[in-house]
Amino acid sequence: KLIKVINGTLEKMERARRLNREVRIEDFYSSVLSKLGIPPENHALEYIHELYLNSFKVEAFPETEEVLEYLKGRYRLAVISNASSELPRYAIRRLGLESYFEVIVLSRDIGIRKPSPEIFKFTLQKLRLSSSQAIHVGDSMEKDVLGAKRVGMKAVWINRSGEEASVDADYVLRSISELTRIL
After folding, report:
1. What distance in Å separates the CA atoms of residue 34 and residue 105, rounded to the nearest whole number?
2. What pTM was computed for the model?
């Protein structure tokens, strides 16, 4: 029964994501527990979520801190991430990188996922910037480049695998270390 309940809940989550809507991981856990007849107590949900976060090995690319240091001295930095959990914030904090970012926007916070223009607009509003004043850097052609272009931002695609572009990025780089060359 557990597998059937989890799979059914995952299917609902995926349907929402296809519409660029986000389902918070806590809501997923709560739904599964409720369907199993277990009251979703807050402390139980927090415990499950903590186990989930701690199950991930968190590491950054070797050049990450050096590039962030370079960029922080020249630009205001933000993170936009499609995440149903707090994992990106947790990872940034665990890696000691939180001081580099003014704003961290997770799809779980606003219920909208990239490439929807709303998540980009929300972040720009938090930074009090127009789209012409911002550049989005990301590793997904569909989510990052397409989303940024939809709101009029310049887009940098980090294409580590050398795959074929389906949308025109303003810059295509193989590594984040190349950002120091173009910005």
Report:
1. 29
2. 0.80
Contact criterion met (CB below 8 Å) for 71 and 11: no
Both tokens assigned to 104: 């961290």
Q: What is the pLDDT of residues 65-118, one digit of tens each?
A: 999 999 999 999 999 999 988 889 999 999 999 999 999 999 999 999 999 999
CA distance 74 to 159: 23
- Domains recognised in the chain with CATH numbers: 2-54 (no CATH), 64-182 (3.40.50.1000)
User: Mind listing the pLDDT tens digit for each residue in 123-152?
Assistant: 999 999 999 999 999 999 999 999 999 999
Q: What are phi and psi of 113, to 5 degrees?
A: -110, 155
The owner of tokens 């606003």 is: 110
CB 145 within 8 Å of CB 155: yes
